[in-house]
Specification:
Blueprint (H helix, E strand, L loop, with lengths): L2 H6 L4 H23 L8 H16 L2 H11 L11 E6 L8 E5 L4 E4 L5 H7 L7 E5 L5 H4 L2 H7 L9 E4 L5 H4 L14 E3 L6 E2 L4 E7 L12 E8 L8 H6 L6 H9 L2 E4 L2 E4 H4 L7 E6 L8 H5 L1 H5 L10 E4 L3 H4 L2 H8 L6 E4 L10 H13 L21 E7 L6 E2 L9 E2 L2 E3 L5 E3 L4 E7 L4 H6 L4 H13 L13 E6 L13 E7 L2 E7 L3 H19 L1 E5 L5 H4 L2 H10 L8 E5 L1 H11 L9 E5 L17 H11 L3 E6 L9 E7 L2 E5 L7 H6 L5 E5 L7 H6 L5 H11 L4 E4 L13 H5 L3 E3 L4 E3 L9 H11 L1 H19 L4 H21 L4 H4 L18
Parallel strand pairs: 3-4, 4-5, 5-6, 12-13, 13-14, 14-18, 23-24, 24-25, 25-26, 29-30, 30-31, 31-32
Antiparallel strand pairs: 1-2, 1-19, 2-3, 7-8, 8-9, 9-12, 10-11, 15-16, 15-20, 17-18, 19-20, 21-22, 21-33, 22-23, 27-28, 28-29
Helix pairs in contact: 2-3, 18-28, 19-21, 28-29, 29-30
Length: about 850
Amino acid sequence: MDCAIIFQRCTCWKSFKLVSQILCVNSRKKVSSMATDSGSFDHSAGRQKLVEHFNAIRNNMSATKKRKLLKEGKRERLANSVLQFKVISTGYNNSCKSVILQTEFLSYMFNCGDGILRQCGDNNGSWTKLEHIFVTQMSYKNLAGTLELSMGLADPSSISHLNIHGLGSLACLIDCPARTFGKGAVKSLVQQPANQSYKDRALIAEPVRLSDQTNPSSDAMAACAFKLTFPAPKRKVNTKNLMKYCVKPGPWLKQLIDTNGSVEVSGKTITADMVLDEQRKSQSALVIDCPSVNHLPGLSEHRDRLSKISEGDSFVDLIIHMSPDHVIHHPKYQEFVSLFPSSTVQIMLLESKEVVNLNYAWDQQVHLNLIEPNMFPHLYPKPDISAGKSVTEKTQTEVVDGTDSQEQGDSSPEIERDGGVYIARPGLQYNLVKGQMVTRYCRHKSTVESGLEYFSDSQREEVLAAIASRQTYTDNNARDYPIVTMLGTGAAMSSRTRNTAGILVELSKDNFALLDCGYGVLSQLTSLYGRDRSEHILRNLKQIFISHGHADHHGGLLAVLCARKAAYESPPPQLHIILPGKLRKWCQHLGRNFDNCMDNVRMLGCDQLCKDSQVIESYKLSNVELKQTFADIQVASLETVRVQHAYGLQSFGICIRHSDYKLVYSGDTMPCDRLVEAAMHADLLIHEATFADSFIKDAEMKTHCTTSQALDVAKRSQAKFTLLTHFSTRHPRMAGYSVELHKAENVGIAFDNMILRPKDLPNTTLSSLHDILRLMYPLHVTAQSERSRTIANKREQGMDPLEIIKSINESVELEQSLVKKRKLRPEEVDAADGPSQSDSQPHESVG
């Protein structure tokens, strides 16, 4: 590296001094070499020292270095200037009740449910400093997101492993096959001793066992409450008081801080109260989850231990109730709640409380509902269409001491309470040090008005005019089934507007099939259909197809199976799961250890239903077995197709025939001739289009398709209609635009929470939606359109691939110029529109 360039990039005095010395030596060397030819000096050691110094600065950021010293005990106790509790999810819509505690350098999570990364990204819950997960009960609902989170923390310099605290054994989770979740993901999970208090320089976490009275000795059935104690920091020196008493600072100050007593200085007796700030008291919090009424006797047994900091001391400062609603309303639990004085802040997470878990997804559904109400129904909780209410998001700050309150925003209502208890919403934050609470809330009004409030005043008339002039096509003679519901249209990582892969197909009345099941699919299903309807769907689920072993396609499978079992009072009927052979061990391994969710589940390998000549004939199902299987899942025929994705990993598409309708789903794949042959004359082809055409190198490296490649497959297979899905986080609002896609009349683009009936397919084409989407989301749509047109013009000119790559760089500059020219809303500034994760995730690597 050129020393002059390094000189300009110096960030500290030490670096400046080191670079100056090397520049001086280099100048002397140059003069010496000009004066004589008698050899040269060797300064490689000095240059190496400089390189090592800058590498240390780059790899060991200040916060990371402080966290490392903090854990090793080489740093004084953390001052706890930040103790921020953030509610990630309250349990509504089949989500897991989850809270994050953020300190200045470390973060701690309580319960880690399915789809945790998307919930954290939407509710401002940073996971970059997370190293500890405290689990209140060893159920899969509380642990489903641990593997997803370990992959989200892919930077090896951020953490070495995730520590899981709780009762019960996690061997089944830690020992599961790591290949299905990405290299090193499972190895980063470490279970800490269950019955021991955890202590670091920031807090002391004491577990309190709440046994199930039906089986008191079982760790798997027991629950665990965590009492957190935050030691008071050492007192700081008050410089004004030093001047007041005319004493000079010296080594005696450290002795005074350590002993908190008195010392003799220049013949004067100086006490700690004279020259030090006031002593801050230690603070405490309690996180409690009582899963059932059988655990309630533990509250009475450990009442003093739970309620007070120590024996005979004051009550805890904060309680977070994560118990189920039916337990919270029990008289014994209410007696425990009333035990605490008004000075103790109590926050309840109620799963029955209607709240918006994912604000970005809920808002986008409101916008799309303006275009096609039947295709994009409102998510739960449904908007309140009563007059006089408005949809606005404000932030309210309240100092919880009974005397002072400060509000930000116009006429913000008070934080919702039930007596002296605060009712939590996702995004609620409480600063224990300042006694300050901030909550986000959303009040609903009519559908049209709620959608218009997102747009600026100048856009409203344009959006309404475009919607009014839009032509729709409805074939009233079309069949009623199948009904396709897109539960997830994202790629490797979910974003704020797209979940990971999941497609629900209702082949006939009450005959459901699930094609891929990524993280968060269960929550998506409940948000779209509501709890009652989603339970009905789970009870009538006949088959689940998993295309390959990447976690964004099967990470939510066990969560769906656990919810399906809970929806039945009696043993559930048989369910068929079609998946690659290597995933079978993973399902059986975890299913036997969590909730016994594999009861009456029949697993079929994708190879057993594949007509590929490479598959051993003896491994395939016989004709008799095939007919019986087709009868059980109520289809005319079903066939899996080998596709090309992730070298060395088995990947499949699927072709389903029901009555005279043919539906084909590609899974993840590059352009594949076998899929073209299987999808020939299909009524509906659902094909992945992960990248825009400008990212063709990424598509080749990660074995995915670009938009134009997916269109070519659709054209060669002569499919009657093609629906594109599985979009990269680079394209959060809509698919990768291309001129060919805009002209196609039988190709549609998918959105999350889209319900498609055969008669509605023509209304999903880009030509039908582009003008309105361009007005709604100008940054995303316009930039992609201009980029695609630039590349298409270059191709028509016969330009070679190298020149086309240069045009891609020009289109990137165009995107940046659009951002500068137009004043964007806060929602549009983040081009990824989701957690800042790249598409190059561990489970998307090849080989």
